[in-house]
TrEMBL record:
Record organism: Solanum commersonii (Commerson's wild potato)
Name under which the protein is recorded: Pentatricopeptide repeat-containing protein
Entry keyword set: Repeat
Transmembrane portions of the chain: none
UniProt cross-references to InterPro entries, sorted A to Z: E_motif, PPR_At4g14850-like_plant, PPR_rpt, TPR-like_helical_dom_sf
GO BP terms, alphabetized: RNA modification
């Protein structure tokens, strides 16, 4: 469900007065938690006059999913009633953000309040355990609470947990204590042995598994191949590989990757390349295995060529990919690899994979200002403003000199983190401290910082006194702030300014439509949508075209025009007429308050 459709339904709910109903309010709160924004969800939560535990749980889930664990804990402590779902949400929130000690603390606190942990509670904890003593503590707690450890699902999760922690004897003990096992149980045990350096034991369990008439799957075969690879046992690996071919598993990329690693570790790089070529699949796992094989066999140039090919195939590099490239030792190739890695680090920041970008940055032997700027900016836009500022101070300690981009990233970090005083200080000292005259990009960050902090008057003063003409982005930040603080006149005024500066922008129309809808001003809502359709959707757009056999298909905004194919032309016309009819019917139903479109 789209956000706009949800808001229209919510508007009807408000008009009919059903928003006071707790059950319906909870239903809409749950929908907003999945398809809306945090602000929308809070408005619905605030509208429910008689909140029950379900209402509080859904709002708690919204806070956890948005990453605001601190506010989630405050809400959790203030909840008038808490059930096992409330406790599980808080445990899951802490664990998913790497705060396992806090998660374990909530788990222990939960039992002090007499709340019996559910199976889901244990599955959360078992999935995120990082230390052996924590795993054993949770296992003991399960025994004390009478959890049925002979259950296949529970037993498998414990085997997997102990396997990840490298405690093979405990994993084996759980396996032997289970009344019934399945293929997943065998897989978990075999994988645990391989990961912990007991490859021979893993191969013995594999033989026992087949003797007990259990049919191995792709995961089983990949684990056993990894074991043979670690042992550098080519003969045993060939036998396993023949079985994979016989069972049709070699088409699985995980199995193929394990086979590539096997031949590479046994100095049979030509066989690795043959498997990679025969697979004819451009997959992250396969490409990483082949890259690693080239790097391990001192074929750096082949590795870099393959890396470039993966980028052309739109395969996103992982940390493992980049570590393989970093292992290239030839100086002439390392420079090329360094540039590719810097590009990849920037890409990771843009995609929100900030941990991967940080690992790349930390592994760099030489850091120029571009790499510092990339990381400072990446941390700022990915919800780590404090780390962004700390990295800047680290740069200064190393006698680094910031440039315009560095200071833009810093001001952005202050804006996102709400560090108004620090942002003001940096902005005021730019020219005096570093000889950099503030540009439009710096003013944009400062205006955004003020509006996010609710300081609309200060933001307006900056707009009036700045030496540059305010751009649309500044006005947009003020527009959104006006909307949040419910200033209708200011919203209409700023929206009009944006319409003058950027006639092609749909933001002012969308904000006005939302404001009018929330106030029940249906006529104004229809007028704004009509204006948006006339001024934006009907503007002449650029064309692109492709030739498919005897047909030429042209693309324009939301249309497809065809030359030489009647079927496509008819289809496009019908689709556009349908969309237009839907738009008109929707506006009419909103204006009249009817239930049909």
């Amino acid at each position: 469900m789209e956000g706009s459709s949800l808001q229209i339904l919510h508007g009807k709910l408000l008009k009919l007065g059903f928003n006071k109903n707790t059950f319906l309010g909870n239903c809409y709160l749950d929908l907003y938690s999945k398809f809306g924004t945090k602000i929308d969800a809070f408005k619905v939560f605030d509208e429910i006059p008689y909140k029950n535990v379900v209402s509080w749980n859904i709002w708690l889930k919204v806070l956890v999913q948005s990453g605001d664990v601190h506010c989630a804990r405050q809400l959790f402590d203030e909840m008038p009633e808490r059930d096992v779902v409330s406790w599980n949400s808080m445990i899951s929130g802490y664990a998913s953000y790497g705060l396992f000690e806090n998660a374990l603390g909530v788990f222990l606190e939960m039992q002090k309040y007499g709340i019996r942990p559910s199976g889901y509670t244990y599955s959360i904890l078992v999935s995120y355990v990082e230390f052996a003593f924590h795993g054993k503590e949770i296992h003991g707690n399960m025994l004390r609470n009478g959890v049925d450890l002979s259950n296949v699902v529970v037993g498998n999760s414990l085997i997997d947990m102990y396997g990840k922690l490298g405690i093979v004897d405990y994993a084996t003990g759980v396996f032997l204590a289970m009344e019934t096992v399945d293929v997943i149980s065998w897989n978990s045990l075999i994988s645990s042995c391989c990961k912990s350096g007991y490859e021979d034991t893993a191969l013995s369990y594999f033989s026992l598994m087949r003797a007990c008439k259990y049919s191995p799957d792709e995961f089983t075969m990949s684990s056993v191949l990894i074991g043979c690879s670690n042992l550098r046992s080519l003969e045993k690996g060939k036998q396993i590989l023949c079985l994979c071919v016989k069972m049709g598993f070699l088409c699985n990329t995980i199995v193929s990757s394990a086979a590539i690693d096997l031949f590479s570790n046994c100095n049979r790089i030509e066989d690795s390349a043959r498997i990679f070529k025969d697979s004819n699949i451009w997959d992250t796992a396969l490409c990483n295995s082949m890259l690693s094989s080239y790097a391990l066999n001192s074929l750096e140039e082949n590795a870099l060529r393959l890396f470039v090919l993966t980028l052309r195939k739109n395969i996103r590099p992982t940390e493992f990919t980049l570590s393989c490239i970093l292992s290239c030792t030839q100086p002439s190739l390392w420079i090329w690899g360094f540039k590719l890695i810097l590009w990849a680090s920037n890409m990771y920041c843009k995609y929100g994979l900030i941990d991967s970008a940080t690992n790349i940055f930390n592994d760099l032997l030489t850091r120029d200002l571009i790499s510092w700027n990339t990381m400072i900016f990446g941390l700022a836009i990915n919800g780590e403003p404090t780390k962004s500022l700390n990295l800047y101070y680290e740069l200064l300690e190393l006698s680094g000199q910031p440039d315009r981009i560095t200071l833009t990233a810093l001001l952005l970090a202050c804006s996102y983190g709400g560090f108004v005083d620090e942002g003001r200080s940096i902005f005021s000292l730019m020219e005096e401290e570093y000889g950099i005259t503030p540009g439009i990009e710096h003013y944009t960050c400062v205006v955004g910082m003020m509006t996010r902090a609710g300081k609309l008057k200060e933001a307006g003063d900056i707009l009036q006194n700045m030496p540059h003409e305010p751009n649309s982005e500044m006005w947009e930040s003020i527009l959104l702030a006006c909307d949040i603080y419910g200033d209708l006149k200011a919203t209409e005024k700023v929206a009009g300014k944006i319409m003058e500066l950027t006639p092609e922008s749909s933001l002012p129309y969308l904000v006005l439509a939302q404001v009018y809808e929330s106030r029940g001003r249906w006529e104004s809502l229809v007028r704004v949508r009509k204006e948006m359709k006339e001024r934006i959707e009907n503007k002449v757009a650029s064309y692109s075209w492709i030739s498919v056999r005897s047909s030429v298909i042209m693309y324009q905004a939301n249309q497809i025009l065809s030359c030489g194919s009647k079927d496509i032309g008819i289809y496009s016309t019908l689709r556009l007429l349908t969309e237009d009819t839907w738009d008109r019917g929707l506006c009419q139903s909103v204006a009249t308050g009817s239930n049909s479109c």
